[in-house]
Specification:
The protein is α/β, with parallel strands linked by helices. The protein contains seven helices and six strands, in the order βαβαβααβαβααβ. The longest helix is centred in the middle third of the chain and has 24 residues.
Length: 181
């Protein structure tokens, strides 16, 4: 059964006991729609010794600001190749003994299961954090994006609706904790 960690505080502080709940984990994998706060939380975890692997940064490093203007079929190919790079980087990091936070949407159960499989193969303890955010909040957050970098990519209304409706929310996954916002 999923655990409910709590709400982010209005000033962005973590829920009480949050860091203690991650103490025994080698891998924390973020899960949530664009604009849900995955990168914000992942960057906080970097401060506490986690190595951050970001799907958005993998794409930005290779394609920069040309990515948003690419046709959808090409974006899909890029998403798939960046996922491969992300999982290979996770494997290398685990082999080096690093604690890792995976900053990616994990929008499909199959992606979460692939991360689970990698962690089992490397005997790494894993926890997912599902950032549950109402659609209206996501819209407001994404309106402020300017497209100035990997973590500031513009997501239009139509695209957000598609992401939100196609997102496979964790249900009955015992290694998932929720943070409500």
């Amino acid at each position: 059964m999923e655990k409910m960690i709590g709400n982010f505080k209005e000033d962005g502080r973590l829920p009480e006991g949050f860091l203690a709940s991650l103490e025994k984990l080698q891998v924390v994998a973020m899960c949530g729609v664009s604009g849900s706060g995955k990168t914000y939380l992942s960057k906080l975890l970097e401060i506490f010794g986690f190595k951050r692997i970001s799907s958005d940064e993998i794409i930005w490093d290779r394609y920069g600001d040309s990515f948003p203007d690419m046709p959808d079929y090409q974006k899909m190919e890029i998403f798939q190749s960046s996922w491969k790079i992300l999982t290979e980087s996770l494997c290398r990091s685990l082999e080096e003994g690093s604690r890792v936070v995976v900053d990616a949407t994990m929008c499909k159960l199959s992606k979460r299961n692939e991360i689970r499989s990698i962690c089992r193969k490397h005997y790494a303890s894993l926890g997912f954090i599902y950032m549950e955010v109402p659609f209206e909040t996501l819209e407001k957050r994404l309106e402020g994006r300017k497209g100035l970098g990997a973590n500031d990519q513009i997501v239009g209304s139509r695209q957000l609706e598609e992401y939100f409706s196609n997102f496979e929310r964790p249900s009955g996954e015992c290694d998932v904790s929720r943070i409500y916002q």
